[in-house]
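Is zinc ion placement plausible here? Inputs below.
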Amino acid sequence: MQRLTAQRQAILDLINASNRHWDADEVVRALVDAGASIGIATVYRGLAALETQGLIDSIQLADKKRYERADKAHHDHMICTSCGLIEEFSHDTIEELQLAAAAKKGFRLTGHQLVMFGYCSQCAKELKA
Ligand SMILES: [Zn+2]
Ligand SMILES: [Zn+2]
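Reply from A.M.:
I modeled the complex. Tokens:
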């Protein structure tokens, strides 16, 4: 494998160290807080390169991409549009139905992303109150 620059290695280490779903701004803040001198453009380029190399995964949200570790089992996401909480889930029937839908179109799936938007249980409770 191609050797990573120190900055890209730092980005990769940060993302691999937790189960979070990071956006580029959060990555910059965390690295700068840890004493690095790195700017947003470098982080954007680094995230894109790491994703191309398959070292991290991303989910595309309405307004931005978020990145996560690439070594987790396949899962999909639910996103709270009020507080930003991201829940991971995986549902066998949904997975099977996607394969069936693709097969019906003669489409050979290489992957998919499913993002569901709504209110998490906490925010749903507060909205009702
Ligand atoms: Zn919420
Ligand atoms: Zn995830």
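Short version: The beta strands are 56-60, 65-69, 76-80, 86-89, 115-118.
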